[in-house]
Each structure stands twice: as C-alpha cells, then as structure tokens.
Amino acid sequence: MKSRILSRIFTTDHRQLGILYLCLALAAAIVGTVLSLMMRIHRVWPNMMVPGVGLVKPENYLAMVTMHGTLMVFFVLLIAPQAGFANLVLPEQIGARRMAFPRINAASFWISVVAFLVLISGAHIKGGSAISGWSSYPPLSALPAAGPGQGLGMDLWLISIGIFCVASWLSAVNMLATILGERRAGMTWSRLPMTVWGWLVTSILSLLIFAVLLAAAVLLFSDRHFGSSFFIPVGDMIDGRVVGHGDGSPLLWLHLFWFFGHPGTYLAVLPGMGLATSLFANFTRRRVAGYRVMAGGLVAIGGLGLLVWGHHMFVSGMNPWAGTAFALTTMAIAVPSTIEVIGWLATLWGGGFRLKTPMLFALGFLSFFIVGGLSGPILAQPALDAYLHNTFFVVAHFHMVMGLAGVFTVFAGVYYWFPLMTGRMMNETLGKLHFWISLIGAYGTFFPMYFAGLAGEPRHYDRLAGPATSFPSLVPLERGITYSAGLLAGAQLLFLWNVFVSARRGMVAEPNPWQASTLEWANGAAYGRIESGPYEYELPAGAEGFHPQWEPAAKEE
Amino acid sequence: MPPDGSLRGAVVDRLMFWNLIAICIIAVVAHLWLIFAVLRRRSAGRGFPVLIRWGLVGAFCVMYTWMALTAQRVWAASRFTGPSLTAMHVEVVGEQFQWYFRYPGPDATFGATRPQLVNAAAGNPLGLDPKDTRGADDVVSSVLVLPAGREVDLQLRSLDVIHGFFIPGMRIKENTVPGLVLHLHFTPEKPGTYPILCSQVCGMGHGRMQARLMVLAPADYTVWLDQRERTRQQAEGE
After folding, report:
1. What's the rounded mean pLDDT across residues B21-41?
2. Is A351 in contact with B182 (Cβ distance < 8 A)?
3. Which B residues 122-161 touch A at CB under 8 Å?
C-alpha cells in the first residue's frame, strides 16, 4: 500500500505528472485567491482586523500584492496551461507513448514544488515576504534596508524564482523535444491539434526567456550579497546611508525582467488559445476556419512577443525614441491577435453549438480576450500610457487578457479532459452554475477597474485615503469590486466541490464523451500512420458523424 | 479622468476619448456577434466567407495604423523636443516617501548636491553642498508651486529607489530613477491644486507618497517665491 502511494507520487508517468502539476497550480491559486480577497477587504474596510495578521499594515498589504502576483503568474498561469495540460495530453495528441525525457519531466515537477515551498515560507519569517511587487524593481529589491520584507523575504523570493526558472527550462526542453521528435508517422505540421502549436511556441519562448530571468535573478542576488553593483547606481542612498558604490543601472533590470515578463504572459494564454480553437471546432462540429492562418497567428504572436518588452517602460526613463519603436512592435501584435479572434468568430458564426461546460468556458475566454485585449492597443500608445501606466487600467487589462482568459481556458481544459484524469464526467449543472457566477463575478471585479484607472488611481496603494487625494468618487466602485470579488471566489467553491465529488461519484464517462477527433481520445485503440487532420468534424455530402485521427482516411471512391 | 489643467492635456484627452469609443464599439459588436451565434440554430453548413474575414482584418489594420500614427504625433510633440528656452526649471527629487521640489533661485542655477550631505533633520534633505555658492539661493519646497501659462522643465531625480512622478491633472508621468536625471516639460494652464502621486511601488510608504501641485496666477506666484526667498534669508541671518 505504502509503496503504491509512493510510486504514484514519484511517478514518471506523464499523465500522473500532469495531474500533480494541476494540483500544485490549484494550491497556489487557493493561496493567491485568499490573498486577493484579503487585499480587497482591506481596501474597502482598512481598519478591519484580519485573522492571523491583525491590523493590515502597509507592508503587509504590499507583501500580499507581491505574493498574489508571483503565485498567480508563476505558479498558476505559467504552470497549469503548460506543464499541467501538456503532460496530461500532449504525448497522446501527437501519437507518442510518452514524453521524450520522463525523468527530467518528473525532476522538473519536484523542482517546481521546492520553488513553491521556498516562496511561501517567506510569510513565516521575520520581516515577512518581499514587498516590491512581482516585477521587483531594484534598488528597492537590491537593498535589504529598503523596507520590511526586503531582507530575507526578498532573498527567498529570488531563490524561489531562480529555482522556478530551472524547472520551467527543463520542462520546456522536454516538451520541445517531445513535439519535435516523438510525433507518430504521418503526424505532419498541418495535422497537429492547435494546442500542440501553442505548446510548440511556448516551449521555444520558455527556453529563451527563463534563461534571461535566471541570469537577472543571479545578478540581483549577487548585488545583494557579493558586493557587485549591476543595478545600484553610484551614490544611492537608503535609510540615511549611502550604499551605492558602483555604477549600476536600475533600468538594466527592467530590460532583463520584461524581456522575460512580456513573453511570459503569453505562456499563460497561447496554449489556452489553442485549446479554445479545438473546443470551438468540436462543439460546433466544424473545421477550424483557416487552420494554417490560425497556427501561423500563434507563431507570429510568440515571435513578436519577444520584441515588445519596452512597452512596460515608456515612462521608465527609457529613450522616448525607443518608446516609439516598442509602440510600433506592440501595435503589430494586435494584428495576429485580431486574426485569431476573427478566426474564432468565423468558426462560431454558423451557430448551432452544443453548449456544454467546456464550451461555455471557452466562450468566456473569448469574451475576456476581446474585452481585455482591446485595451492593449490603447496601452500600446505611449502618449496614452503616460497617463495610464501603473494605474488600475493596467490592472484591469492584464487581469482580463492574461488572468481571466488564461484561467477560463484552464477551467475549460479541466472540464473537457476530466474523463481522461478520472474516467468520470464532471457534473454539468454545477459546471454551468460555476461558469455563469464566475462570469458575472469576474466582470464585476475587473471591468470597473478600467474606470478606476481612467480616474488616475495608481496600483499598489494599500488604501485610498492619502494626504493629497482620497479618490472619494471611487469609494462605491471599490466596494462593488470587493463584493464581486467575493462572489467570484465563492463560485470557485462550487468548482472544488464538483471536482472532488465527480472524481469519486461522477457519471462514468463513455470512451469518447465529446465525440472528439484528436488522438488523446483514442482510448487505447490500436492505430498506425496518421492520415487525417485534427478537426475532421464535417464530412462531405451530408454524411453523419466525424473522422477521428486514429482511423485511416476514407478511400476516395 | 480628473479635470485637465495643462496646455497639452486636451490633446491627450481627445485621443483617449476616440480610442475608448473605438474599442467600446468593437467590443459591443463582437459580443453581439457572439450572442447571435449562441442563439442561432445551425445554418446550412456554409462556412464564413473568407473574403469578409480578410476584409475585417484589413479594416482592423487600418484602425491600428491610425491609432499608432495619431498617438505617435502626440508623443513626439511632448517628448522628442526639449522645452522652450524661456521655460522655468524646477528639480523634483523623490525619496522614500516624500517629494521635494527645488527652485534654482535668482541665479537660475542649481547648486551641487552630494548624497553624503543629505540630512533632512538638519534642514538639508537634498544634500546641498554649502561650498557651492550657486546653491546658496536655492529654495527647497514640499509643494510644487508653478505659475499658470509658463512652460516648466522638470528635472527628475531619486535619492534611493525608483519612484513614479504622476500628476493626473496635468496628464504627465515619468519615473524618477536613481542615477539618472530625466526631463519632463509641460505648461500648466488652469490655476488650482492638483494631487501629485507616486506611481511606482517604492516601499511601505508608497501609498502615502503624495504631494500637491499648486498652479497660481503669475502675480501670486511671484509673491510666493519672494516670500520663500525671504524666509530663507531670515533663516540664514539667525
């Protein structure tokens, strides 16, 4: 019995690892959500005592923001859509038996767990967790005297991120090698499911950007402990003492971090965009409108994503001419993104869907992708960003287009692939309830933030009341956001309940419950060469049914 | 957005307005499309016309080009050229968690500063070097007071960490970065008081790192500056 549990935990089986990755993301998401609720409550009722914390001090609030951002970005959005789902279905989707490097795969998971534990241990040490936000700009992040949490808390943050980089890099090597080397005969580029295109792009991006972030983290750690001065300018002063002795530049960190940070956000949504494409095809029973264009769009978004990091730095002191260049590359990304959205809308145009829960979440993803994405071209204009930068407008933008869009595809994926994980279906009624409450709660939480941002409210303020302004007109809006956030978080209890109950007592799933044509649903059927595309849902001449990839192509009569 | 009090603010506001209108219309149309598709029974199986798809993509490309070009002109007008030669100069210094504003005084030149000399308790928050006579007439204030209608060139510095200098009412924002001196120029037009906010997380006091901009009629501004100069001289006389 004991050895069975151990072998289940220290497994090299990719599907088990996928489930473990999803569990890790779930743990991080629960902590991150609780933190966000505490922040929301504190903003509206600043004098309320929080159990375990007491009165929330400004540094507590900033530590919560930092942990919320780090957990949600690194340990939820960079894990669940990538390593989570890819381990679950990627080998099957390309007709492989296993990942290219199962042991590296397992090692990468356990390294991620270590990174997670190191990160959350910051809450229990003296001074608390780091307070410099998930982007950790130096010198604030380089000098322990710059604030509570910037001592050991900041060290733990850096170590955790460094470890996480190694894990993600290994995971990307494994994923890329699998996609390039393990495809079944006949699984050509134009027969890959769109999710595989997503993972192909994200694994290449991961290889490039996690190397840079790891280097940046090592340099910053060296500034903190080994007397180097990569990011600290000469004469820099903290807490009444001059500490800057070398001629470093804080802007260097911004460049290195955002070279990672911007493509990093694409890791969160590209696999989800692929999944949404698959789900739209499946639940409308149509081919994907313009498969090659859609796949090319994902590649273009990934490629351009490496060239736009400077749009986080329009007002950082970067040369304004560089701002212009980054504004143009950023605007260019809107084009492939628009092509994707129009491709989805064209697929959906004919109507006649099966509105199952995975499809609902995919549609929710599309809604957030549109509403969040459209604010992108506004932020891409330096003239407007000079007002909106670091206001709640930006908070609304990335929570919609990365956070909600990403998380909704994760939900879609869990509902869709649940039968593969447990052999059972999730409850449809609870699923639909979960969707509608989440949709309302999410819009109620994040849409009003656009207005708060337009009113000029900056990020990272622990309370509205300040010496120069208290944003009195925003108080009702802030209250509404907090109530909606409560609703949104409450809806997730339905999801958890549904997962746990359905895993034990859910309806036993049929072999291919969604009548899907991609290979993860082959269910052990023996098949040879792949002879058809991934979305053969429309058969010619009014024939019923569809053509799964594991069946040989019909002979031309 | 809060009321605009600067010369170029109206241009930014107009740009913002048209952009918001454009994306709101697109978002609404896209959602009507979605709702229509959800409610629609299955059509005769004809796919969506490819020509219209590319037409739509083309239309969006035109819109993005329009956005990029119009915004670029506004950006270039405010950032690619320096201030006029007649602009007044004020130094802005960010420090955890306080803004200081330094006026060069009658000699129109800032005195040298050294971080080693910074001592707020002794009345020298910026580390002015007493050996530099150019700094003798410098005035340091915790309120940014400016005359209406005159262009100002701000020199942004930070003593410790990165701060964000943000005046919503003037539609301007630029980080203050230790080790760099950055410039930002604008013309306040409407007299009044405007909040100055820190827009880059800088430590535990970030949310309270605020100051005020007071835009005065030119005559009132001269009175204020004379008064500050007199207090400084009195302090020296004691």
Report:
1. 91
2. no
3. 159-161
Mean pLDDT of A518-540: 84
Residue at A5 is within a domain: no
CB A221 within 8 A of CB A158: yes
User: Each residue of A403-446: pLDDT tens digit?
Assistant: 999 999 999 999 999 999 999 999 999 999 999 999 999 999 99
- Residue A241, C-beta contacts closer than 8 angstroms, at least 6 positions apart: A145
Whether A466 sits inside 8 A of B39 (CB atoms) is: no
Q: Which of A209, A225, A267, A241 is nearest to A78 (CA)?
A: A267
> Which pTM value belongs to this model?
0.94
pLDDT tens figures, A247-276:
899 999 999 999 999 999 999 999 999 999
Distance (Å, rounded) from C-alpha A79 to C-alpha A411? 14
Domain CATH for A456: 1.20.210.10
Residue with tokens 């996690």: A210
Domain boundaries, position A43: 13-233+242-521
Q: Once rounded to an integer, what is the mean pLDDT over residues A528-538? A: 85
Cα distance from A154 to chain B (closest Cα, Å)?
Answer: 13
Complex confidence, ipTM: 0.93
CA neighbor of A72 nearest in space, from A217, A210, A261, A268: A268
Nearest-CA distance A313 → chain B (Å) = 9
Where are the domains positioned within chain B? 9-79, 88-237
Whether B67 and A58 lie within 8 Å, measured CB to CB: no
Separation between Cα atoms, residue A55 and residue A398, nearest integer Å: 29
Q: Judge whether B177 is closer than 8 Å to chain A, CB to CB.
A: yes
Cβ contact (<8 Å) for B204 and A62?
A: yes
Q: In CATH, what number does B88-237 get?
A: 2.60.40.420
CA distance B230 to chain A (A): 27
A327–B72: do the CB atoms touch at under 8 Å? yes
Would you give the distance in Å from CA A40 to the centre of its chain?
21
The beta-carbon contacts of B75-82 under 8 Å, at least 24 apart in sequence, are B75/A320, B75/A323, B75/A324, B75/A327, B75/A381, B75/A382, B75/A383, B75/A386, B76/A324, B77/B8, B77/B11, B78/A383, B78/A386, B78/B8, B78/B185, B78/B186, B79/A320, B79/A323, B79/A382, B80/A320, B80/A321, B82/B153, B82/B183, B82/B185
Domain count, chain A: 1
Question: What is the count of residue pairs from A and B with beta carbons less than 8 Å apart?
Answer: 285
